[in-house]
Amino acid sequence: MLKKKNNSHLFFFFDRYAIGGAQRIYLDVLKSVEDQRKQIYFTRLSPDEKLKDSFFNTPNAEIKDIHRVCENLLVRLFSVHYYAFYINQHPNAHVFSSNSTFFYDMLPFLRRRVITTELFHNFAYGKNGMEFFGLANHRYLDNRVIYDNLTLSNIRNQYKKYGVPQSYLDKLRFMEPGVSIPGFTRKNFTGTLHVVYAGRGGPQKRIWLLNRIAESMIKSGQPIKFAFAGTMTSELSDFVKQHSTIYGAISSVDEMYSVYHKAHVLILVSAYEGFPMVIKESMACGCVPVVTALEGNKMHLKHGENSLLIDAVDDEDRVVREGIAHLQTLAGNRELLHTLSEKAYQYAAANFGREKFYQQCRELLLKNAV
C-alpha cells in the first residue's frame, strides 16, 4: 500500500499481449500517447508472446504482466484493492482497459474523480461475454469506446432492455481504428487464384466451414491456392494443410502485409463479430473480401462493389455453397477480380487511415490532464 506514486496519470489494463486484432488496436491506442508517461498491465496469461516485444518496447512506459496475482482468486481479492488504492493516489488518473475482468473488479473501489474508459469489442451473442460485465458496471464507466456500428446498436438495445438511463448512453464513444495504407501495387490476376485466411481459430471463426470450402475447391482442380496465417492450423484437415501454404502466427505487420500482397482474396466465414481489422488490412493491400454478410461487415462492404458477401450466416451448408460459388466466380472472371481488387484498395485508402483514430484517442486520454 506504500508503493510510490508514478508521475503519470495514465493506466492501461489489458487482457494479454498474445497476437490478435484486439491487441493491434491496443498498440494504436498506446501509440496515440507515446510521448506521455504511462503504466501498462496485462491481467491474463498470454498463450503466445508474438506481440510481447511490441508492447514491452512502448516508449515512456512502465509495463508489467500481473496475471499471476489476477488469476488466483484469493490473491486477486488483495490485488484488486491494492491497485485501486494505488491508482487513487494519482491526481487526474485515467484508467483505460479492454477485455480485463480485473478492471471491472477494481471499478467500485476507484474514486469518482478517476476517469474510467473501456474499449469494448463485440457481443458474444448469448454466450455471457464481456457485454454483461460492461452492463453490470455501467455506472462506474465514464467512457465506453466502440468501433463498429453493430456493436454500438447492440449496446444501445441492451441498455434499453435493462432500463439503463439515457445519461449512460451519452458515455458511448464511437472511434474506429485504422490501418497502414501502403501505396497501390497492381497485382497479377492471371494464373492461380490466391486465397488467404488470417486470424485465430475457435467457434466464432468456424474454421470447419472454411476447411470444407478449401477441400472442395482444391479437389475441383481449379487454379486456386489457399494460405493460412494464424493460430488455427490444428483445426484444418491434413488434406488442406498438405495442399496449402501454412504461415502460422505472424506478429510482424510488414510480414502480414507481404502475405496480403501475394493474395487476391481474403476469406472469412465468422458466425459473429464486428468489422475485423484483417478485412481493413487486406483491403489496403488490394484483397477482395469474401466474407459472411454480418451487420458489422456490411457497414463498409457492398456485394459486387468492393467485396462478395456470403448472405447465409446461420445455415452452415449454405455458407459453404456460397463461399465456393464466390471463389469459382472470381477464378473464372479475372476482370471482375481485378475491378473488385482496385475498388477494395480505393475504399480502404479513403476510409481506413489511422490518423483520425490517433487524434480521437489522444484527446480522450489527455482531456483532463494537467
Low-confidence stretches: none
Strand order of the largest sheet: 3-2-1-4-5-6-7
| Termini Cα gap | 25 Å
Largest sheet: 7 strands, parallel
**What's the structural domain tally?**
2
The number of helical segments is 16
CATH class of the largest domain: Alpha Beta
Beta-strand percentage range: 15-25%
Cα shape: elongated
CATH topology of the largest domain: Rossmann fold
Overview of the molecule:
By secondary structure, the protein is α/β, with parallel strands linked by helices. The chain folds into 2 domains: 10-177 and 354-365, Glycogen Phosphorylase B (Rossmann fold), CATH 3.40.50; 193-351, Glycogen Phosphorylase B (Rossmann fold, 3-Layer(aba) Sandwich), CATH 3.40.50.2000. Helix content is 41%, strand content 17%. The protein contains 16 helices and 13 strands. The strands form 2 sheets. It has a 7-stranded parallel sheet with strand order 3-2-1-4-5-6-7. The chain has a 6-stranded parallel sheet with strand order 10-9-8-11-12-13, with helices on both faces. Helix 13 (295-298) links the parallel strand 12 and strand 13 (308-310). The longest helix is centred in the C-terminal third of the chain and has 18 residues, at 334-351. The protein starts with 9 loop residues before the first strand and ends in a 5-residue tail after the last helix.
Name the descriptors.
370 residues, alpha/beta, single chain, Rossmann fold, 7-stranded parallel sheet, 17% strand, 41% helix
